[in-house]
Amino acid sequence: MSTIRYIDLFAGAGGLSEGFYRQGYKPVAHVEYDKAACFTLRTRVAYHHLKESGKEEIYHSYLKGGLTREELYTSVPEELLNTVINAEIGKDNTRIFDEIDSKLKGEEVDVIIGGPPCQAYSVVGRAPLKHKKDDERTKLYIQYGRFLKRYRPKLFVFENVPGILSAAKGKYYENLKKYYKRLGYELDARLLNAYDYGVVQNRKRVIIIGWRKDLNFSYPDILAEDKKYKRDIIFSDLPPVKPGETKRVQKYKSDTNYYLNKNAIRNGIDFVTQHITRPHNSKDLEIYKLAIKELEKGERLKNNQIPESMRTQKNITDFLDRFKVVDEEPHTMIAHIAKDGHHFIHPDKKQLRSISVREAARIQSFPDDYYFEGIKEDQPRTSAYKQIGNAVPPLMAEKIAGNLKTKLNGQ
């Protein structure tokens, strides 16, 4: 197949889409409800267009603050920016269907990808999760299915948390399988760890892959890489920063390395963007010191070990691991990082802070020129953390896309 067209549903900041784009797939549409994430998607569309047109200097100027977002977008054909559809996928998807139909111009959709919001399936977290009995988010697979029914793609990729297989004693997953089979699809699910595919993070996710029944297809063997990488290989070249840092652009502290080059995280520019941090109060910083000391001894600081006079969370039953330093094998990036940075404390006690937006993005394997937007253009720190925490790591997505392409081309 010369061109493989895809639709990205519940697109978020575009981590899943980035992996498919790198493998040569062509996006028909990205559908996302969050307005800030839609700006991020449009900015990435602008990047890819300008890079392919040999006009990367325009994008670099934007990263440095030399252009406004509106000025950046004027350098990109409107039809490309309009592949991003800011809409909520729900019971009535008429407007979304109409917009996608107008972009297809009679051509077929080959693949649908997407990861519906997963909080309703989560069985682990920073504290026990209490969900509504009839949480609408548990039924988003039905909305996803409506796009399968309308566009009849050859394949689909459905990403979610491990809990989707076991939530409600497996009822949701069983219902999903039955529904998608009625729509004409066979499917299988595997639990994949992003750490096995070059991502410096233990992040296990269920990847459901489905294929039309008329195809001679099966779940591809997405083989793990032998080489595993540690935290310092993605942190070592970044300049030290203080809590509350807001500089738009900074110089790298040192040269690149094999990992950053191989995975296109450092990809040619000589500056780093969004290496910005949140401010912290003095009480939190004292606790961060304790947490770093414990990790140096190979232990994790528990909330009940914090002196009562310093403790900021009185509940020591549900929040035993409220403060966590990023270890050599970083723990799973979560959306809660947008609320506070206590679960992601930088290991360098000289810097004494939670990780920056750029460090969080690197843990998720986003390239350094990937810019996370806010609704407004003024240092969208909180919005960026939220988008990164919810994202699919692009490196993992790229491995999935590559394996699917190989099998698809063999049809």
Can you characterise this structure?
About 3% of the residues have low confidence. The protein has a domain of 238 residues: Rossmann fold. With 411 residues, it is α/β, with parallel strands linked by helices. α1 crosses α15 and α2 runs antiparallel to α3. A seven-stranded mixed β-sheet has the order 3-2-1-4-5-7-6, with helices on both faces. Strands 8-9 form a two-stranded antiparallel ribbon. The protein has 15 helices and nine strands.
Provide a compact summary of the structure.
This protein has helices spanning 15-22, 35-52, 56-64, 69-73, 78-81, 94-104, 140-151, 163-166, 171-182, 232-235, 258-262, 282-296, 357-363, 381-390, 394-409; strands spanning 5-9, 26-32, 84-86, 111-114, 155-160, 185-193, 204-212, 249-251, 271-273. The protein has 411 residues and is α/β, with parallel strands linked by helices.
